[in-house]
Write a structure and sequence with these properties.
Number of strands of chain A: 7
Largest interface: A-B, 57 and 55 residues
Largest sheet of chain A: 4 strands, parallel
Order of helices and strands of chain A: HHHHHHHHHHHHEHHEHEHEHEHHHEHEH
Oligomer: heterodimer
Strand content of chain B: under 5%
Number of domains of chain A: 2
Shape of chain A: globular
Order of helices and strands of chain B: HHHHHHHHH
Radius of gyration of chain B: 20 Å
Helix content of chain A: 40-55%
Radius of gyration of chain A: 25 Å
Strand content of chain A: under 5%
Distance between the termini of chain B: 28 Å
Amino acid sequence: MSEDLKPDQLEYYKQESLLKVDYRPPATDWMQTPTAMRPGAFIYSAKPKNIEYIDFPNARNWAPIDEDWKLPTNWKEIVIQGIRERLDKYRSFKVFMDICVRCGACADKCHFYIGGGDPKNMPVLRAELLRSIYRNDFTTAGKLLGRMVGARPLTIDVIKEWFFYFYQCTECRRCSVFCPYGIDTAEITMMARELLHLLGIGVNWIMEPVASCYRTGNHLGIQPHGLKDTLEFFAEDIEEVTGVKVEVPMNKKGAEVLFVTPSGDFLADPGTYTAMGYMALFHEIGLDYTFSTYASEGGNFGLFTSADMMKRLNSKIYAEAKRLGVKWIMGGECGHMWRVLHQYMDTMNGPADFLEVPVSPMTGTRFEHARSTKMIHIAEFTADLIKHGKLKLDPSRNDCRRVTFHDSCNPSRAMGMLEEPRYVLKNVCRNFFEMPPNTIREQTFCCGGGAGLGTDENMEMRLRGGLPRGNAVRHVQEKHGVNQLAACCAIDRATLTTVCDFWAPGVKVTGITELVANALVMKGEGDRKLNFRKEPMRGEEDGHV
Amino acid sequence: MTLREFMVQRQPALCERWLDLLLADYGEETAANWRRERDPFANPIGHTFTTEAPRLVEAVSGDGKFDTVAAAALEAIIKIRSVQELAPSRAIAFVYMLRDVIRGELGTELARGAHATALATVDRRIERLALLAFDVYVRCREQVFRLRQDELKRSVASLLRRWHGSELPEPASEEVVHLSPPPNHAVRR
């Protein structure tokens, strides 16, 4: 290029030289690509007091951006021994370590990869972060041939990489749907997190709820009198908008049903309105039920910590059912709670032979599928009520709401509950629209905040992860004028509100039972002008169409 | 032919070159994935980039009307890039790269100072687009922080309501839901 030419002169630019510029970042093998702890993408570390409370090892102050994570001196030995124990204990872990042929079917199915593009968020590669260590220390080929067969030695950088990426997995299991071998990536993430806990590495947004739940019975640490106050306050609000006074049964011995829901519903909007919906519905049908201050948490952040911790937290539900002498248990609208209850509770803390197979006292329906766990989901219960004509509903009250349904990962993929919520929604509102088929049901996209990722310091990461879901919501918003997203999960109600504000502004999030309660014509109700949000019920007054 | 006619005729090639540069930020494998998959729900980013790029090329080659379509197209791309761990400069650099793309693709047509005046006009439009990109990027980032605050408030909403009664302040995002500036707020030179 001529020296005397300047960039503002056209001749300065030559086609040949422009074409030579390579904008691509240098391609490095994934093992050689170091992990940079970027604010917005990691979650703050667990405080020592929360680690100590549950007797986990190596409690200390540390931060992900620190150079020195203050690991115990024999950290490597601890991790290798931890892998060995888990390979012996869990057949599935060993199979998942061995069986992957790296076909790549899962690669572009993860919401974090779709929204961010970081190759280490491809489920296959995220699993490889752990698998490479397994190969190195537990397989002959790995010991002999090392990197040639995808093995690498365990270093402190590997530990940091695990922390970074296994807390960018929401254990939603969408990738598993596409895996020809059925590898459950969530279980690989669970194993990696268990190994990190052996070194005292965890995140506070999980460990604080775990410690709180262990101490007071719920993740938010609401104490018994606080919970009673909260529910009485809800009852006042219900009376204000419906004119009907509902009861607040607490720790009621001999009640027929113990009702357990995530504590997020007691404190966080818009879950609070769903909680009011439960209370209004149960009052209307005259259900003999009770809340418990001891088993006051349906969710179980132990699931995101370790199998043992999950078992410890879950044990409260059966213990309380036994103490109160109820016949069976009903669960509220939560997501991961249902993976625990549906797939693990029975073997962890069962058999609950002191309970009866759930039978709806209103319809006589016997919920055979819950014969063993003795616990059913409120959407199943409500769908059955509607099917038998036990509810007087006026769906026109929801006419200003154009509703779509987000299948929460665990109720859909872990529990197979696909039809019941839809049946309920279609009976309580007249404008229902599905999102595209590859974004719902078994293929549903995660909210980006599950498995203990729903805090705010990693907001950028969550918004990237929420992009595929937000994109589908935006589509039905533009196509059908959808303004309400219904979800039967407390984490969804908290995090999808944010996801929608960013990717599909104008779409509000609601629980299913909130919409049921809107449409529910209650005996003795007054002229219902307001919903539980104290907004005009039919939306006319604010011009909402 | 005028420069505009060349740009219209060669728009697909211009967009292809531009996409190459844009996708280069994400590494070879991801770039290939995002180019390959055509389903807008399986691949929202690839779909957004390929849909919006022609609208922006059209905007800079067009008849001077710098309308809301261009602003919306820019916003769609930048909103994604604003939460992808890219430095601010890198997140909006693709706008400037369009100048190189045009010169690379239309090198022969622009040789020896041909269409110099028209090219200067296109450059000015690209600069305006870059200024607009800066606004959009900052608004997106501000919204990220506002969303963090809103979420915190919602997480303790039932407590706040008990303290404040019905005077509970609404989350800020209730008011700020549309990022696109109204047309009369578009950047003026």
